[in-house]
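Appendix B, example 12.
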Amino acid sequence: MGATHHATDQPEWVASFFESAEQQRSAASMGMWLFLAQEILFFSGLFMAYIAYRFLYPGTWLSGAEVLNKWMGAANTVVLLTSSLTMVLAIRDLQLNKTMSSVRWIWATVGLAGVFLVVKAFEYAHKFHMGIFPGGHYEGGAVEGMAGIFFGIYYTATGLHALHVIIGMGLLGWLAVKVKNGSVTGENDVLAENLGLYWHLVDLVWIFLFPMLYLVK
């Protein structure tokens, strides 16, 4: 009797163990915010390592930042900020029931993420050509002091961020398919909103990484 009443009164996309669509939305949103808090703590460890070693080796950090390509870093910052805009537009159009427009904006976000990775790949390739490898494999002579530590943190932080970008691309591609086939709609948009929050976190982390690594003064 109870299950039949639930199925009658609630949309079909509401799971049977939730009493209402609002309860399901609240639970999903809370879970996402807890996940994002964990991600912030995860990257905070890298930020603290950066702060500690920058304090210990200020000369290394200054000369290391000069080796990094600020123009590539700035270009990627613009790309990710633009991708945040396209993600917002995708969710807005979804809520306005403009399904195909929403799908196009989602794929635009995925495309911009791909541009970010291509720029980062060129940047890595240039560093490898110079003999700048992670950690103890640093072979260049352009950076004084503990260059291996600086580039170890650089590759770890930017590499983990790039991994989050790749994961985000996969999730957004999955979202585009679900929006197109009607599994995610303007009424049932919590998945889109949660993935939007994830993507904004990815952008936010880069906004911290760019000045920390490339604009050291």
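Confidence is low (pLDDT under 50) at residues 1-7. Residues 21-56 form the longest helix (36 residues).
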